[in-house]
Amino acid sequence: MKIGRDNVLLYYYYIEMEKEALSGKTLAELKEMVTSLQMPGFSAKQIADWLYKKKVRTIDEMTNLSLKFREKLTEKYEVGNTAPEQSQKSADGTVKYLFRTQDNKLIESVFIPEKERATLCISSQVGCKMNCLFCMTGKQGFSGNLSANEILNQIFSIPESDLLTNVVFMGMGEPLDNFQEVKKVIEILTADYGYTWSPKRITLSTIGIKKEMQNLLNDTQCHIAVSLHSPFHEQRLSLMPMEKINPVREIIEQLKTYDFSRQRRLSFEYIIFKNVNDSQVHAKELVKLLSGLECRINLIRFHKIPGVELESPNMAVIEKFQQYLNKRGIICTLRKSRGEDILAACGMLSGKGKDIKEK
User: Which partner from 41, 95, 175, 358 sits 20 to 30 angstroms from 4, CA to CA?
Assistant: First the structure.
C-alpha cells in the first residue's frame, strides 16, 4: 500500500510527540536513564547541569556530550519545555498564563509582581478532586495529575522566569494528591544539581491529607499553608467535603508533632465569608484550635464565583476579626487580592483561558 506524503509527515509528528521529557527528571532518574542508554554515569550530572543550570532548550546544545550520545538521547527524549498558549494581564500587573498539557488539557498559573518579590502561583493537577464549595477549579472536576515536567514547565517557560523570588503551589489542584511528582519538583528546585533554591522560597498549600502530610513534613523543608476556612467540623465539612476523611483537627494534631520554631513557616489560609465564618465565635475557636502551634493565619477575601451564594464581608468585619487574633498572639495578615479582573485571584482558576477551547 502506498503511503501518502501527508500520512508520512503525520507519522513522524506523532513519533516526535511521544518523546519523553528530560526536564522534570531527578538526578537519580537521569542516572537510571544514562545507564539504560549505555552512556557514562557522569553524563547524568552533565545533563542535569544543562537542564537546570544552563536551561537549554534542545539536546543539541549539550555540547559536552558526544555527538553519538546526543543522537541516542534525541531518539527517545526531548528537553520538554513548551511555551504558554496564552497570557492575560491584570490592571494590577498580575499575569495569568494558560498552558496545554501533554494530553491536551489546559491549566493555569499566575505571576504576581510586587516591589521586592515576584511570585508564581503554579498548578499541580488538571482540575481538582476536592470539590470545595468556594473554588472554581473544583467545579470543573478532576482530569489528571501533572507530571514533574509539566509543573516545572510553568516556572521556566514564562518570560519572567529569571525574576522569580518565590513559587507557591496554590494553583489548580491539591498538591498532596499528586505528591510524588510535586516532591520531585521541590527536589529539583532545591538540590545542588538543580536550581539550588532555598526551600524557603517555596510554599505548598494543602487542605490537609493525613497520609501524605507526614511525608511532606519529613521529605521537604518548604513552607506549608493549610486551607482551614472554619474551625468547626460540620461547617468545614459543608465547605470542604474532604473534611469527612481528613478532619482538620487531626491534621493540626499531626502538625503539632513537628518543630516549627525554626525558619520553616506554617500558616493557615482562611477565606472569610459573610455571616458564615466571620464571627467572634469563630475567631475565639481558632485561638483554641491553634494553641501550641508556631503559626500564622492569612485572611483571604472571598472572590465571587458563578453559582455560589457566598459573599465577602465588609472590611470593618474583616479588620475586627484580624485584630481579635492579633491581640491573642496569633499573627494574622490580610492577603492582598490580585488579578481578580482576569479571574486569577484565589479560587478563581479554571483552565479555560480567554476565547480558547480544548483541541
Answer: 358
Reply yes or no on whether 222 is catalytic.
Answer: no
User: pTM, whole model, 2 decimals?
Assistant: 0.91
Which residues make Cβ contacts (< 8 Å) with residue 13, sequence separation at least 6?
Answer: none
Residue-wise pLDDT for 168-179, tens only, equals 999 999 999 999
CA proximity to 222, closest of 146, 338, 122:
122
Long-range pairs for 175-178 at CB < 8 Å and ≥24 separation?
Answer: 175/124, 175/204, 175/205, 175/206, 176/204, 176/206, 176/208, 176/209, 176/212, 176/213, 176/216, 177/124, 177/125, 177/128, 177/129, 177/130, 177/145, 177/209, 177/212, 178/124, 178/125, 178/145, 178/146
Residue 121 annotated as catalytic: no
**Which one of the listed residues 78, 108, 181, 269 is annotated catalytic?**
108
* Annotated catalytic residue, options 135, 295, 332, 346: 346
Here the cell at position 266 is: 506554617
Query: Which of these, 133, 132, 127, 131, lies nearest to 108 by C-alpha position?
Result: 127
